[in-house]
Amino acid sequence: NIASNNMDGICLYDSSNNNTLTSNIASDNSNWDISIEDSSSTFTDSTLTGTTVSFTYNGNVLLKGVGSPATDPSGRQSIGKFINAANRSAGAWLYLNFSYSTADVSGLDESSLAVWEYNGIAWLEDGWNGTRYLSTANNVVGVNITSFSVFAPMATAAAGGSTGGGGGDGTYPPGWGTPAPTVTATKAPAATDAPPGERVTPSPTKKPAAAKATTQAAEGTTAGTPAKKGAPGFTAVFAIAGMLAVAYAMMRRRA
User: Fold this and answer.
1) pLDDT digits (tens, 9 = 90+) for 65-75
2) Closest Cα to residue 78, out of 161, 170, 169, 151?
């Protein structure tokens, strides 16, 4: 059966008891996809706006397939199936099982599947629920609900994968996630007229030897006093004249 475009899709009241409803479809209903009041029945493989569920219950309950109410919690990813459940009687409870396909958990760790609750502020994994159920062989994940709100199966990423935080599909730039290389700053060389890339090394300038503090005194003078310069050749002439005079005196003695 298909129930769509109604105020309520499938309605069970006190006159409808002990029913087993299987493989029914409800969608695009303005209020609820399933409305139960004072009726005890069993629902198997009911598809509510694209989400297939089976459930048992106690009390008066309402169910509807909905879209995601908020971004996925950190470290978890939904499998795209959401049910809004409400109670209309004190003490009501719901044992809700979600069916999923292998494609629904592609890239996820199937063994980590668990139903989470969105309380209007944040996603919560625990603190609102009773017994949990997971059968990876039958592709079913379930939970006993005692606090009503929006519910969705969530899982962690498979090894080497990423949950993506519930964002849309997209690509990352090349090299994303690779640490950037460390860059060491280098002091820029002084500007020159050389062509680009050609290194210019200035020619070293020889430092002049330091002048001696004192100058050796000339022979026969006092240090610090300049030596007197005689007439060129005078000393030699006087020496020859002296030798001739001595020779002349010796010749006269012999005579």
Assistant:
1) 999 999 999 99
2) 151
